């Protein structure tokens, strides 16, 4: 069988948007993780749990954390176990569903969250300082549009 002489289209990976977004996300996460890893010995999934729970006063389910962070449930489960062992997260029985476990930050977890948020926001500001205020607003707007196009859960409520 003769091979076709059809021209093969090439892909410049360094200009391919999904790859670029993934690479930027990895760099951002690594830069921010340095703060909480050095201070509290927590990793990225553990921080995602703390950050998601810290946004709310009422307990949230592990499934809620999975939906908000788009992190695999096994990684969230391990993170919750580690945070509970460190005394940062408490597990509670759900009033609505006995199979579901609710999660909330302990006073120690809230204190760590309160210490980390200003540091991480300052670090984010430093990373984004290469963009003007208008460019930062445009970036935020464009990311909102992309998230909506994928129907990603907005877990601020």
Q: N- to C-terminal separation?
A: 60 Å
Widest sheet: strand ordering: 1-3-2
Quickly count the helices. 6
Biggest sheet architecture: 3 strands, antiparallel
Look up the CATH topology of the domain at 41-149.
Arc Repressor Mutant, subunit A
Q: Which stretches are poorly predicted, pLDDT < 50 over at least 5 residues?
A: none
CATH class designation of the domain at 41-149: Mainly Alpha
Kindly describe this structure:
This protein has 157 residues and is mainly alpha-helical. It has a domain at 41-149: Orthogonal Bundle (Arc Repressor Mutant, subunit A). The chain contains six helices and three strands; from the N terminus they run ααβααββαα. It has helices spanning 17-40, 44-54, 62-69, 73-86, 107-128, 133-149, and strands at residues 60-61, 89-93, 101-105. Strands 1-3-2 form a three-stranded antiparallel sheet. Strand 2 (89-93) and strand 3 form a beta hairpin. Helix 1 (17-40) packs across helix 5 (107-128), helix 2 packs across helix 4 and helix 3 (62-69) crosses helix 4 (73-86). The model has no long low-confidence stretch (mean pLDDT 92).
């Amino acid at each position: 069988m003769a091979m076709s002489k059809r021209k093969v289209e090439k892909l410049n990976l360094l200009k391919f948007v999904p790859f670029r977004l993934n690479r930027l996300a990895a760099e951002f996460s690594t830069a921010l993780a340095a703060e909480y890893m050095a201070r509290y010995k927590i990793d990225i999934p553990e921080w995602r749990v703390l950050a998601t729970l810290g946004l709310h006063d009422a307990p949230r389910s592990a499934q809620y954390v999975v939906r908000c962070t788009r992190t695999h449930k096994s990684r969230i489960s391990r993170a919750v176990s580690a945070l509970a062992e460190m005394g940062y997260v408490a597990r509670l029985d759900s009033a609505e569903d006995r199979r579901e476990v609710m999660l909330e930050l302990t006073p120690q977890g809230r204190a760590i969250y309160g210490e980390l948020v200003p540091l991480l926001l300052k670090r984010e500001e430093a990373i984004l300082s290469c963009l003007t205020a208008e460019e930062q607003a445009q970036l935020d707007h464009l990311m909102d549009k992309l998230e909506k196009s994928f129907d990603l859960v907005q877990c601020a409520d």
